[in-house]
Amino acid sequence: MCDFLWGVGTGAFQVEGSWRKDGKGFSIWDHFTRSELRDSAGTSSDSYTLLDKDLSALQFLGVTFYQFSISWSRLFPTGVVAAPNEKGLQYYNTLIDSLLYRNIAPVVTLYHWDLPLMLQEKFGGWKNESVIDIFNDYATFCFQTFGDRVKYWITIHNPYLVAWHGYGTGIHAPGERGKIRTVYSVGHNLIKAHAKVWHTYKERFEPYQKGMISIVLGSHWIEPNKLEDELDISKCQKSMERVLGWFAKPIHGDGDYPEGLKNEFLFLPHFTEDEKDYIKGTADFFAFSFGPSNFKPPNTLPKMGQNLSLNLREVLNWIKLEYNSPRILIAENGWFTDSHPLQISLMYVRVMNTGLMDVTFSYAAIKYDNIDVFGYTAWSLLDGFEWQHAYNIRRGLFYVDFKSKKKERIPKSSALYYKQIIQENAHIRKQIIQPFVQTGSYRTYL
């Protein structure tokens, strides 16, 4: 475990603030928060102007990498690649250089949901295939500009949520609702956009920059009520394929959608044979997002013989079995409390104990299940604007008083806990691991 990578992550829209400062363009989330949520990310944690405080927080934790995203509209206000916004360019250059100076590796996400508003209004956003080429132009600029210092790239963060909640439920920007065909059309374009950017990097930049590139895929985990019930098991497998398999099978599998998905949705877009060959294998590692906040189901969700579980070890086993034992980066894993500041310390003692179980699951998966997990990303570094939840929940290891001008980064119990885990290099005590040694994946019963 001495080479295991310990990191922490943020999304640009959630923590940067300064949404109108220094020439930044509007994103779909800038528009959505004002028109639909009647709220605003505003200054949020103000990472754009308080970079030194973020760097101090990272040093305090002792992480080996920092996963952050670039705000596309801060570099190119309209989304179209032309002369970059110099202030935005300076910010990201300073961030990357400052991380390297502190021996913290930058893991850079190109797209964490904040599409430039102009691309939504002019082209219809990810519904339009034209955005694929525009995204590739933007990615190419980032590779050219930052790639000499960045060795880990993420194309898109959790495309499932972009497609499903942006164009299906409407609880994410751009807030479109109800058209299931559109949801899968958007997903189709996101997969092709990722594949194009991957090929651009591998052909033009990887030979001399020597970096790696992937896409963060997120999922829940579903367990059957009865392990001996084949129907329950089948429903669980189908549920995983509809969420994780939707994107994982084309990219990490054979280049095509799961058969069950194609049989259920006859209108599902088709990949040509050439497209399948182009898409499959377009990831240098499996970047995986897992936790309760992104897939928190409504209380009215029918069980259908399934139980929602937060067992990270079991879903890692499923990934191993489904996708031929890939190298895995746990690219997002975190917990949340409500927004009441007086409850933060006590809540996080309890919550981070649960979080340690997830670290334990990943460790046990490595040691006992022979799963190739090479890194773990705690989410998030800071309290910030939590998408449709606005400021009503907190996910940060560091508490931020959003009403304060100084916005000091105050370490919570979770930050102290995570710091200790990193210092001890994940040599988690035997008595913590032992209770989980016997757990396995339901996939072994199929």
UniProtKB/TrEMBL annotation:
InterPro entries: GH (IPR017853), GH_1_N_CS (IPR033132), Glyco_hydro_1 (IPR001360). GO terms for molecular function: hydrolase activity, hydrolyzing O-glycosyl compounds. One of its GO terms (biological process) is carbohydrate metabolic process. PANTHER family: BETA-KLOTHO, GLYCOSYL HYDROLASE. This is Klotho beta. PROSITE patterns: GLYCOSYL_HYDROL_F1_2. It comes from Geospiza parvula (Small tree-finch). Belongs to the glycosyl hydrolase 1 family.
